Structures are given as structure tokens and as C-alpha cells.
Amino acid sequence: MGGAGESGVDDRRLLPVVVRMTSGRVGPTQPPRSRRGRARESSGRPPRDSGEAAGPTSRGRGEGGAGRRGGRAPGRLRSVRKLSQPRARPEAVSVTMAMTAGTTTTFPMSNHTRERVTVAKLTLENFYSNLILQHEERETRQKKLEVAMEEEGLADEEKKLRRSQHARKETEFLRLKRTRLGLDDFESLKVIGRGAFGEVRLVQKKDTGHIYAMKILRKADMLEKEQVAHIRAERDILVEADGAWVVKMFYSFQDKRNLYLIMEFLPGGDMMTLLMKKDTLTEEETQFYISETVLAIDAIHQLGFIHRDIKPDNLLLDAKGHVKLSDFGLCTGLKKAHRTEFYRNLTHNPPSDFSFQNMNSKRKAETWKKNRRQLAYSTVGTPDYIAPEVFMQTGYNKLCDWWSLGVIMYEMLIGYPPFCSETPQETYRKVMNWKETLVFPPEVPISEKAKDLILRFCIDSENRIGNSGVEEIKGHPFFEGVDWEHIRERPAAIPIEIKSIDDTSNFDDFPESDILQPVPNTTEPDYKSKDWVFLNYTYKRFEGLTQRGSIPTYMKAGKL
To answer: What is the model's pLDDT at position 289?
Structure first.
């Protein structure tokens, strides 16, 4: 039973606790006035004591709540609007308790409460932004359909039939988007890639029989290695990119332990595998692959992104041998090498007598190929393809991708990258001293056009080709005769032999791992509390959910 406390105030007359966001200033909080209180003021009667608690008859009928007659809740609406609008970071966040005496007690908000507020804000923002995005995408698909029908010159009856079919697909898409996608919807066939933070598997969707590449990333590693921003960038790029030059992502989802990206499977392997099979490429072959990579990089730049990790490992080949870009920030082992502090302790070391310097070009190529695959799977990686300005604190822009392309072109024609060394530290020093270390071996023939283009790529960013746009690169004499508009329609310079849609002969063999083991309910409690950083990771592409097909007999379990 309530009585007078130490302050002499009747405990039964304490005001309700009011939780509010402050900007470093905390003061007494006035309770909301009920209609009865406003009536007293208008009739001249003295108002109820400000310390008297609101009775049950006035609950929910003040300005902050909805009355029994169905009135709106303006206070709640204002709170939702504030959550959905950007605002300055508050200087202090507190919980305020106002009492009858007018005193105020302030308690700091816990980290747990801060995270819950952040999650609520992000959830609202993502919900409404996704609604807008879905509407825009649906309108875009409808416009594409109308344009395609006009170009085909279809009759009105045929157009009506096409629209009806499209409407059914849209309805099916909305229904399927509400279904939860998970590991149980896919059958794992084989491991085809492994990196520092996860692996890539060949999988088959059980209901359609379609073959995909599933990239699996461990959440714990993403948090520990501070890769959350990178995986978010990769997911966003794959969602936004819908052209011929970027590997297509159909779905993304997550569970308690891992993140999953379901992408198209490109059976041609990657450029690194192709270069390891051959000593060098001819200039005609090099022209083809460099031309396609120029268009692929430009497609990323037009979306407003910088790849920053252009290298042969990330140039995938489709079933016809054409190039597609992949790996936008993950599973390559090179992210640590993108941080300046990783190399900061190396800058004070004097240049050493590199062991590679006394080798001829043939021995360099053999040594490089021997170590190349191991470096691709390591967490340190190799900085061979990274532009020098990326290592510096002065900043960089999209031109760093053209430097990387120049290094790849050198490797195609010479047989190894220009700055290859036995250790990443030595490679770093060579890259930073490129004016002295970028040389062409006299025993390997190379045309002046090819040499000039490499030197135009691998130069300081202010003078690098591409400053004036991609047309400057296309106009270089090395690309004379290239049909830029129809390059994907021509046969590939080196044909790819594919026996079936699930042929993995162009990939290395990897042992099985436990990355797909069931997750116990009590596992990783520390990371469970931080799961909100992966909010809105789930994605489903229209083409992926609306395509259908039966499972071919040879692709069923045990038939591979």
C-alpha cells in the first residue's frame, strides 16, 4: 500500500514514467491533458493538481492516445514519422522520470536499448523503401514488355495474351516473395571454390531443377574481420546490376550462422584458370578479353561503383567463353590488402635485392603459377593488381580499376604480372616503385601498340588513360577493328568445352567442409545479438522466382 516516501510525496500520486529522446537537456515533463482537464480550464474551475495521476476514465483519451470513439493517435504517428526521417545524432539519450515535485532523474540508455532503437528505425526504413522499389521494378518490367511488343509488331490479340501472361507472372512473383527461402530448397552438388571467409558450391534448386552457384559466407568472420560494409556493397551491386557483364544474382538469404548468395553458374571457370593452362595469350586473344573486360568495368562504373579488386580470379567465363565480372568485395582474401595500415610497417624498409630479379621470364612464370592458386585462397592475398593510390591515404577513384586491367594485360602477354615477387611485401614495394620496376623482358615479343596501352594503364592516376571516359580507351590503336556493339555475339577467342550445364571440369576440386552443418539453438550468442547488421539482406529476383522446369535425370542425386 502506498504511503509517503522519503521525499514526502505520496507514492500513489507518482506520474507515469515518460521515455523520451533528449539532446543533452532534461527537464520536468508535463502530463497530457485530458478532455475533462481542458473543460475545467474553459469553465474557470481550478485544474486538477498537476501531480495527480490520470484516472482510468481518461486513459487513452488525451492528446497522446486514441479515444474510444476511434480517434487517431497523433503522438504515435509523429513517432513513426520521426523514425523514418533522417536527423542529427542526439548528444545524449536518456530515460526521464518526472515526479510531482518537479524533480527529474536521468538514466543513461543501455547499449541493448540503443540497438533495439536502431533495429526499429532500420526496419521501418527498409519496409517502406522496399515497397517503393517493388512498385518501380514492376512498372519497369511492364514498360519493357510494351517496348518489346512494339518492336515485334504484334497484333492486338497477341499483345493482350502477352499482357495476361505477364500479369500472371507478376501475381506469382508476389506470392513467392512471401515464402521463406532456405537451405532446404537447394541440394548441394559440389564445392567449386573456397576463400578466406567462406566457399562457393554448385547447387540445384529442388522445385525447378535449375543449377546455381551458392556463395556461403560465415557471419562470425564478417563481424570479426569488419567485412559487413563489403558484403552489403556486394549484395547491393548484384541487386542493381542487371546487365550482360555482371554475374547475375537470383536470391540472397541468411540463417543464424551464414549468409547465402544464389548466383548464376558460369561453367567456363575464371581467367586465372585459363592463364594457368597457357603460357601466354596471343595479342588477338588478349584484345578480345581486354575489350570485354573494358565494357564490364565500365558497366560497374556507370552504376556508380568502383570494383577495386579487378584480377583474373574475378573475371568469370560463361558457357560460350565470354567475360563476366564477379566478387564485389568478398571471399577473395584481398580485403586486408586493401587497407593501408596492413602495409604501413613496410614503407620504412629499404628496397631489397628481390630474388625474382635474377630470374628469366620463363622461370618467373613457372614460379608465379606455382604459388598463384595458394595466394588466391589465403587471407593475405596478393597486391599484384592493386593500384598504388589505393595503398596511399590521398584517396582514389574509379581509375584504379584501369590500372588493374593494365596489370592483367601484361600477364596475358608476358606470362606473369609485372610486380610479382615471392612475398606480398616485396610485391607492394615494387608496385609503389612502379616507375623503376615496370619493365618488359626483351626475350618476350610484344607490339608497340600493346606496350603503349599497358603503360597508359599503369601510370599515375592523373595521366592514366580513361580520365576522359571509356571512349578514350576504346579509341586506343590496340583495339583497332573491335566491334564494341556486338562483341558478345562473336565467338570467344578461346572456345570453352562444356559437356553439360553442371560441368565443373574448369574448376579445382575441393574437399567437403562443415559449413552447412545444422546450427544448434545455443550457438554463437555474441553474434546473435548483432544480427541486425544483416537486416534486409534477403532478396529474390523476378526471373528466378518465375522460371520453371523439371529436373533432368542426369542431374538428380547420384547421377553426376
So the answer is: 98
For the chain, percent helix, then strand, then coil, each to nearest 5? 45, 10, 45
- Separation in Å, CA 348 to CA 332, 351, 382, 409, 457: 28, 9, 20, 31, 27
Residue 114 CA neighbour count, 13 Å, CB half: 10
Give just the sign of the alpha carbon dihedral 272, 273, 274, 278. Answer: positive
Give pLDDT, residue 419. Answer: 93
Do 192 and 291 belong to one domain?
Answer: no
In single-letter form, the type of residue at position 169 comes to K
Pair 435, 540 in one domain: no
Residues 337 and 360 in one domain: yes
The verdict on residue 394 lying in a domain is yes
- Domain span at 517: 116-265+511-555
- Tell me how far apart the alpha carbons of residues 488 and 322 are, in angstroms, rounded to a whole number: 7
**402 and 533 co-located in one domain:** no
CATH code of the domain covering residue 238:
3.30.200.20
The DSSP string of 543-557 is: HHHH---PPPGGGST
461: which DSSP letter? G
CATH number at residue 322: 1.10.510.10
Active site residues: 309
Domain identity same for 325 and 405: yes
Amino acid, res. 520:
P
* pTM as predicted: 0.65
- Smallest CA-to-CA distance from 361 within 413, 408, 426 is with 413
What totals of helices (H) and strands (E) does the chain contain, helices first? 18, 11
* pLDDT value for 364: 53
Instruction: For residues 252 and 289, state if they share a domain.
Output: no
Residue 207 reports pLDDT greater than 50: yes
Domain count, the chain: 3
Same domain, 413 and 325: yes
Q: Degrees (nearest 5) of the Cα angle 464, 466, 470?
A: 165
Shared domain for 225 and 351, answered yes or no, is no
Task: Determine, yes or no, domain membership for 41.
Answer: no
Q: What is the pLDDT of residues 21-79, one digit of tens each?
A: 334 444 444 444 555 544 444 445 544 444 444 444 444 444 444 444 444 444 544 54
Is residue 244 one of the residues assigned to a domain?
A: yes
In contact, 90 and 23? CB cutoff 8 Å: yes
Residue 387 clears pLDDT 70, i.e. is over it: yes
Inside any domain, residue 72: no
Annotated binding site: 215
498-528 pLDDT per residue, tens? 888 888 888 888 877 777 766 555 444 444 4
Beta bridge partners of 253: 260
Q: 386-389 long-range CB contacts below 8 Å, 24 or more apart?
A: 386/308, 386/334, 386/337, 386/338, 386/431, 387/461, 388/431, 388/432, 388/434, 389/460, 389/461
Residue 393 in 3-state DSSP?
coil
Would you place residue 553 in the very low, low, confident or very high pLDDT band (cuts 50, 70, 90)?
A: very low
3-state secondary structure of 323: strand
Cα-trace Rg, the chain: 31
pLDDT at 308: 85
C-alpha cell at 533: 547488421
Q: Which residues sit in the known binding site for ATP?
A: 215
Domain boundary among 109, 143, 178: 109
